[in-house]
């Protein structure tokens, strides 16, 4: 089994990376053109008022004092208040509201990718060089080549505009007030918890297109990795041994092959999840969903620095955590890695 | 396997007597690549796109496709014989705009990939060769850059550069985003090369560091670098378009695929004007597919395990 020492060691290794990440974000924002004090005070504010704002933000302090303060605050996940997008609301609150939206989308997309990608990959490997294999491979390559901001609009045009089967954008019909029943922030979960069946159906229908767009991409990556990993495993001696002792082909593949072939696939799923978080920016823009992806784009455009800092660091933090999770799962599946 | 080795040796011997072209096709890597139908399809797509790009650059008048053509052309016309790809909200013909988009994609994609390859390869080789402190400083910095989802890091970095740089700021941001990948791949490859005795011999003969790195280490790391560059090319073209799509790349009016798609989504989607999104996106996806097909083929041709699987 996995040792606590290994997990602790990995957690300690995260610290310098996260300090580096925070430093990079600090540097980027200080290098960006534009004066935060001027942004808050407004273009027509008097010079005195701008100075006052600058003083209250601590922008007159030496740069290393600002840097130290930033690191200390970042460690407590404290980024101050939003300048523009939601004035006088703490960044933490804004993020707590929006993060579940992005996570929900990423989770459903990833689930579609996993449940379709893994069987397709196995099928493709077991029937190597058959028609099924070629179709799956070309389909998967096409899947990773099609940008989300093209497949998204096409699906909307077909299923929402032309056929009228599914809604075009948003998370739930405007008729419903999700905020009233908010528990987890995940709209499909909250509606079920509240026992509002009609609201749940509306939320689920809104989820289908954006989750599928993400799912297609993720399925393509996962099935490719599953195929090549399974191909390698199939040629191993233990597979032949299992067959030789009289075990059926299907059981051998599923029992001995699957577990071993999953190891590299887990990595791809992890890395892919990070990619999904980045890709959320695009999916949310196409489907007009207000998650932290669209929040970030908006914040960069209007110069809402606290939001930019908070969002970018949250993304990087999640990404790093997922990677850590991948490493740990990895060592559970293959105990040799720990040594 | 043994027959394969024999034929390879034989073809290498023969190759010496033939011309350059024959020698090129006789290389086991190239012949394996050319016998891969998918890789050939990739090469065909890329060549076609390059030709479209060059044609557009030479013969399409940039002013005509950038400025509003209201009054001259029908507005928002659906695809027809006169306008095969239709016209957009300012009555501009979409066909030449999409063709010119190929030029932007190829030009900016090439610069991005070339810049990040150069930067990443240099850093990776230096890290491998000097090890210790240099290695740690370089690779830990790369780790920090790799801790961000790539598109997100690009978004954050784009903000540093002034607006008037247009697509160039997207190029600059993406160069920094891709550099760590090359650095990692190359460092790994270079470490293996440095194990070889011929490196010790070169150093013992008194060769200076730059010479060892450029003449002996770099050429032996070329294979992984080429594969990584090709696969990254497709990614660069998507990411450049994505940044334009989000409003952090090409300036308004520029015929870049990302910007045309952004227009298609923000204005064309609800009105059902499908051709604004369809054509630029189709060419974008096709180009990326071309590079992915080629990159995949190259990787298979280089990977000895894949060879065994085929045999």
Secondary structure elements and their pairing?
The complex is a heterodimer of chains A (339) and B (311).
Chain A: H1 4-31, H2 36-41, H3 47-57, H4 63-75, H5 91-126, H6 131-145, H7 148-162, H8 187-193, H9 197-234, H10 237-244, H11 249-286, H12 292-302, H13 305-333
Chain B: H1 2-17, H2 20-26, H3 28-34, H4 37-59, H5 62-66, H6 94-130, H7 132-146, H8 150-158, H9 167-194, H10 197-204, H11 209-217, H12 222-245, H13 257-268, H14 275-302, H15 304-310
Helix pairs in contact in B: 3-14, 4-6, 4-14, 6-7, 6-9, 6-12, 6-14, 7-9, 8-9, 9-12, 10-11, 12-13, 12-14, 13-14
Report on the structure:
- The complex is a heterodimer of chains A (339) and B (311).
- Chain A is an all-alpha fold and 339 residues long.
- In chain A, helix 1 runs antiparallel to helix 13 and helix 5 runs antiparallel to helix 6.
- Chain A has 13 helices and no strands.
- Chain A starts with a helix and ends in a 6-residue tail after the last helix.
- With 311 residues, chain B is mainly α.
- Chain B is built from 15 helices and no strands.
- The N terminus and C terminus of chain B are likely disordered.
- The interface between A and B is large, with 54 and 50 residues.
């Amino acid at each position: 089994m996995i040792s606590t020492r290994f997990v602790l060691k990995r957690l300690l290794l995260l610290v310098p990376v996260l300090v580096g990440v925070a430093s990079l974000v600090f540097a980027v924002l200080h290098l960006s053109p534009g004066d935060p004090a001027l942004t808050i005070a407004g273009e027509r504010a008097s010079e005195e008022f701008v100075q006052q704002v600058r003083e209250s933000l601590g922008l007159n302090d030496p740069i290393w004092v600002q840097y130290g303060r930033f690191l200390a605050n970042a460690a407590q996940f404290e980024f101050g208040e939003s300048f523009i997008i939601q004035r006088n609301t703490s960044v933490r609150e804004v993020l707590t509201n929006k993060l579940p939206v992005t996570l929900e989308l990423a989770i459903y997309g990833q689930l579609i990718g996993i449940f379709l990608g893994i069987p397709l990959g196995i099928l493709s490997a077991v029937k190597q060089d058959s028609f099924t294999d070629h179709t799956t491979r070309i389909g998967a390559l096409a899947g990773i080549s099609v940008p989300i901001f093209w497949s998204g609009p096409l699906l909307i045009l077909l299923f929402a505009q032309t056929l009228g089967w599914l809604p075009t954008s948003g998370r739930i019909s405007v008729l419903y007030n999700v905020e009233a029943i908010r528990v987890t922030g995940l709209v499909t979960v909250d509606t079920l918890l509240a026992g509002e069946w009609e609201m749940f159906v509306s939320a689920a229908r809104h989820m289908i297109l954006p989750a599928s767009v993400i799912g297609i991409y993720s399925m393509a990556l996962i099935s490719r990795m599953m195929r090549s990993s399974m191909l390698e495993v199939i040629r191993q001696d233990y597979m032949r041994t299992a067959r030789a002792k009289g075990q059926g082909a299907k059981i051998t593949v599923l029992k001995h092959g699957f577990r071993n072939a999953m190891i590299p696939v887990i990595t791809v799923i992890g890395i892919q999840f990070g990619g999904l978080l980045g890709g959320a920016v695009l999916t949310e823009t196409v489907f007009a969903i207000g998650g932290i992806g669209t929040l970030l784009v908006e914040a960069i455009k209007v110069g809402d620095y606290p939001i930019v800092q908070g969002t970018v660091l949250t993304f990087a933090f999640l990404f790093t955590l997922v990677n850590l999770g991948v490493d740990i799962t990895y060592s559970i599946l293959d105990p040799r890695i720990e040594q | 396997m043994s027959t394969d080795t024999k034929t390879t040796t034989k073809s290498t011997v023969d190759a010496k007597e033939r011309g350059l072209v024959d020698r090129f096709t006789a290389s086991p890597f190239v012949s394996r690549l050319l016998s891969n139908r998918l890789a050939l399809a990739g090469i065909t797509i890329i060549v076609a796109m390059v030709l479209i790009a060059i044609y557009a650059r030479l013969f399409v008048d940039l002013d005509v496709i950038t400025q509003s053509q209201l009054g001259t052309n029908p507005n928002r016309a659906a695809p027809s014989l006169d306008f095969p790809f239709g016209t957009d909200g300012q009555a501009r013909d979409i066909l030449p705009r999409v063709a010119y988009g190929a030029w932007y994609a190829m030009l900016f994609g090439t610069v991005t990939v070339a810049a990040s390859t150069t930067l990443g390869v240099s850093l990776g080789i230096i890290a491998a060769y000097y090890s210790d402190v240099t290695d740690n400083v370089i690779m830990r910095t790369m780790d920090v850059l790799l801790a961000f989802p790539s598109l997100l890091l690009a978004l954050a970095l784009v903000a540093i550069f002034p607006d008037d740089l247009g697509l160039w700021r997207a190029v600059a941001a993406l160069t920094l985003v891709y550099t760590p990948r090359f650095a990692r791949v190359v460092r790994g490859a270079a470490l293996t090369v440095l194990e070889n005795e011929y490196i010790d011999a070169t150093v013992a003969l008194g060769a200076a560091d730059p010479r060892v790195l450029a003449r002996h280490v770099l050429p032996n790391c070329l294979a992984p670098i080429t594969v990584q560059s090709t696969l990254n090319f497709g990614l660069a073209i998507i990411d450049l378009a994505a940044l334009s799509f989000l409003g952090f790349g090409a300036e308004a009016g520029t015929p870049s695929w990302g910007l045309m798609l952004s227009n298609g989504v923000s204005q064309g989607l609800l009105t059902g004007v499908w051709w604004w999104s369809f054509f630029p996106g189709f060419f974008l996806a096709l180009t990326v597919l071309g590079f992915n097909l080629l990159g995949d083929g190259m990787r298979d041709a280089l990977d000895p395990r894949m060879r065994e699987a085929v045999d």
